[in-house]
Design a protein that fits this description.
The protein is globular. Strand 6, helix 9 and strand 7 form a beta-alpha-beta unit. 56% of the residues lie in helices and 9% in strands.
Amino acid sequence: MNGDAAALWPRVAEGLRRDLGARTFDHWLKPVRFADYCALSGVVTLETASRFSANWINERFGDRLELAWRQQLPAVRSVSVRGGAAAAERAATLASAPLPAFDAAPAATNPALLGFDPRLSFDRFVVARSNILAANAARRMAMVERPQFNPLYLCSGTGQGKTHLLQAIAQEYAASHPTATIILMSAEKFMLEFVGAMRSGDMMAFKARLRAADLLLLDDLQFVMGKNSTQEELLHTIDDLMTAQRRLVVTADRPPAMLDGVEARLLSRLSGGLVADIEAPEDDLRERIIRQRLAAMPMVEVPGDVVTWLVRHFTRNIRELEGALNKLLAYAALTGARIDLALAEDRLAENVRSARPRITIDEIQRAVCAHYRLDKSEMSSKRRVRAVARPRQVAMYLAKELTPRSYPEIGRRFGGRDHSTVIHAVRTVEALRVADSELDAEIAAIRRSLNS
């Protein structure tokens, strides 16, 4: 695996060079070398000769490095750049070696080459009630026969398997279409390449490359919504692919109708095929995933009560569950500790706190209505009497405070109100909390009920 990861570094580096620009890349990242990859922890270690450079790269480009590596190797969890005497000595021994030969070819990739994770296949995707529609639709998209629904839009919260299905589609499609042109990229990368092409005057090449794809897979579409020029280009790309009867798969963390600032024409295209939800994983699915992981490691002994404990405490998504299991296995492997319930509770206490389900707008509305003895329908009603309007403003304020939702999203959940109404409510309640101790106490009480 370490050798495979090392072979991926030129591809990662070339993507960074395109995204960051040649000048920035050549100055900071060109001297960086691949050092190590730990498959157990998912940590990639890179090195450069100077500690100063290493610290600067970690601070300024750390997130970009992680994103670039995950696009090539989804199992990567973090990237660290080290520098200093050891790295300098290693760099000196490699000084005479040629630098990675960056491929100037388009980013369209053939899954027969490195860049796709063979572990992220259909065979290793555990199917249950919560994801069966998405899984079956993904298989249809990869078949030789033309799919019944195109495009395919997969939506779920983070860590539920969307990216796994994208990789599985790409690899399965490549197996039955060995000469096909396949492009798998994040929506953010689509946006960065589009902006880069505009600035460099190379839009024709950008358009031609995407429209030549037999299968285009775009991950995390929500990150480019609201950017008008990018949406326009995406719309034209979709139209051309659909006209040419090419295949398109898109993922996002919410259904098309819930995406902020989406042009109606693009919304129509995204909704025109099949929208398949992946719901939160049920207990049986989470347990089967852990059992599948452990079956591949027969030398590792994890008692049944530990498996049950993991299933009970990591309910939000699969990524958190697998991360907790990896952390436990890594600790046992590196320290020689025996895995038991006491070790799991001790080592994963912080993970458990982080994995507690997040508060939703619906829960906030219910808690506010319970406190003020209102019917929940009042949260969406047009009534403006103080006894209804003030609790509604409190609920909007708490929705902004306790959830990651934007002002337009919150407004939609309160009867389709405009984002300016939500902003006004938040500012009003903020001011009242300072001047009105009774209201401040009421809001504190509602927050305690939500946290409990």
